[in-house]
Design goal:
Family: Belongs to the group II decarboxylase family.
Radius of gyration: 24 Å
Protein name: Aspartate aminotransferase family protein
Cofactor: pyridoxal 5'-phosphate
Distance between the termini: 49 Å
CATH superfamily of one domain: Type I PLP-dependent aspartate aminotransferase-like (Major domain)
GO molecular function: carboxy-lyase activity; pyridoxal phosphate binding; transaminase activity
Bound molecules: pyridoxal-5'-phosphate
Strand content: 5-15%
Keywords: Aminotransferase, Decarboxylase, Lyase, Pyridoxal phosphate, Transferase
CATH topology of one domain: Aspartate Aminotransferase, domain 2
Structural class: alpha/beta
Length: 462
């Protein structure tokens, strides 16, 4: 099995990025519960035949869709060790929790947070954002609100993010019981960063209307175009208005690993909380989201629930005052920290930083070639590693055509960008995240875009 997976990773470049799943293969996974045991080798064979070839393809060098990391063999082996140990990191006295604490210490160092800051591995940034909203909510309403509930609060909380914020931010506000309408989506500047003048006007208008502004969620690397809000200015503004400053840095925050990109995140060190994913730019295997909170006590106060069943002792396995389960909704938790620890330890910050710079350089190269191709049009300036463009040399409806080009790219298995809307236009969106992507890959993708664009434009209109 180990050989098969190492071969798979080694040969990934020769495979199609993605393949349509044959109905007959899908059908094999509609069976009833197996009563008898099956031979492990046979089950493994089925995995190799029916599952492995039909994954999404984010390990592939020409996968450029959404924002997905490529994974590494190191992360894969760490996953195997973690699974062998089968550790449950909810609490208790064990070295696996010290590994998680070590990563937290590294993150405090990376983001220049104080030693009292707390951190926690979670599934992804969606949940990390949710945790941050809950901490900010409890801070704003007071600890008693954990008993009385938000419905009994006299405060009408309102929060702020840019229109470019990820949908999971409004979902977090929703799940926190605050209601999506209470998230003000602030317009953006031409560079797609939050318009801070409008932000401040909205805060003042909400205050004047008797509402209670409590949180600003800035974004470090928006998911559509990779824009970075002016984090330093937001920090100042949040301070002036006494608001919690959260940063959704799902993929962008770990650009702090690169000395070259880090200055563009100036102000991130002033946040109250940062949500990000190791499974994106840092290439750690899925899933590995993370929440870092400056005020560790506020984080603890939001989730800690004393129960006799989980009593802390002074000695033995149940020793320890604060357990990871005191910092989030999960009690049972896997050993996600190990693959992050292995990845950072084995590759080191400098190499990870260079890898991030490499993907940004590829995005610049792609932008340059798009500018030189008259048939292509750049739809947004390239901030970090995301390039939004379209094929424009056609009589056809360009939105439909560009969507069809992306379908063709996926179904041919050549490359996998995704799509988004930029200023009302459908864009082909290439996010260069994968450490395996080389310059030849972006040319192969663009050559195919030009080829499909021409072919589709020549078809008779249906
Ligand atoms: C990917 C992403 C998310 C969601 O993160 P998950 O790990 O998928 O939950 C949130 N915000 C931004 C900016 C993202 O890029």
């Amino acid at each position: 099995m180990l050989d098969d997976m190492l071969d798979y990773i080694e040969g990934i470049r020769e495979r199609p990025v993605w393949q349509n799943i044959p109905e007959q293969v899908r059908g094999k996974f509609r069976q009833n519960l197996p009563k008898q045991s099956n031979d492990l080798a046979q089950v493994h064979q089925r995995f190799m035949q029916d599952v492995l070839p039909y994954a999404v393809g984010n390990s592939h060098p020409r996968f450029m869709g959404w924002v997905q990391g490529g994974g590494t063999p190191v992360g894969m082996l760490a996953e195997m060790l973690a699974a062998g140990l089968n550790a449950n990191l909810g609490g208790r006295d064990q070295m696996p929790i010290e590994v998680e604490n070590q990563v937290t210490q590294w993150m405090r160092e990376l983001f220049q947070f104080p030693s009292t800051a707390s951190g926690l591995f979670v599934t992804g940034t969606s949940i990390a954002n949710f945790i941050a909203v809950l901490v900010a909510r409890t801070k704003a309403l007071g600890l008693a609100s954990r008993r009385t509930g938000i419905v009994n609060s006299e405060k009408n909380l309102v929060a702020y993010a840019s229109v470019g914020a990820h949908a999971c931010v409004s979902q977090a506000i929703d799940m926190a019981g605050i209601g999506i309408d209470a998230l003000r989506l602030i317009p953006v500047n031409p560079d797609f960063s939050m318009d801070l003048q409008q932000l401040e006007q909205q805060i003042e208008a909400d205050r004047a209307a008797g509402l209670s502004p409590f949180l600003i969620a800035g974004t470090a690397g928006t998911v559509d175009v990779g824009a970075i809000d002016d984090l330093d200015a937001i920090a100042t503004l949040a301070q002036r208005h006494g608001l919690w400053f959260h940063i959704d840095g799902a993929y962008g925050a770990l650009a702090m690993l690169s000395d070259v990109v880090a200055p563009r995140l100036k102000g991130i060190e002033r946040a109250d909380s940062i949500a990000f994913d190791f499974h994106k730019w840092a290439q750690v295997q899925y899933d590995a989201g993370y929440i870092l909170v400056r005020d560790g006590q506020a984080h603890f106060d939001t989730f800690a629930t004393p129960t006799s069943y989980l009593k802390r002792e002074t000695r033995g396995i149940a020793a320890g005052e604060r357990w990871p389960c005191d910092f989030g909704p999960d009690l049972s938790r896997g050993f996600r920290a190990l693959k992050a620890w292995f990845t950072i330890q084995v590759y080191g910050v400098e190499r990870l930083g260079r890898m991030i710079e490499h993907t940004c350089a590829l995005a610049q190269r792609l932008q340059q070639r798009i500018r030189n191709e008259p048939k292509l049009e750049l739809l947004a300036p390239v901030n970090l590693n995301i390039v939004c463009f379209r094929y424009r040399d056609s009589e056809l409806d360009l939105d439909a055509l560009n969507r069809d080009i992306v379908f063709e790219l996926h179904e041919s298995g050549i490359a996998a960008p995704s799509t988004t809307k930029v200023n009302g236009h459908l864009a082909i969106r290439a996010a260069l995240v994968n450490h395996r992507t080389r310059e030849e890959d972006i040319h192969e993708m663009l050559d195919a875009v030009l080829r499909f664009g021409e072919q589709l434009s020549q078809l008779p209109k249906s």
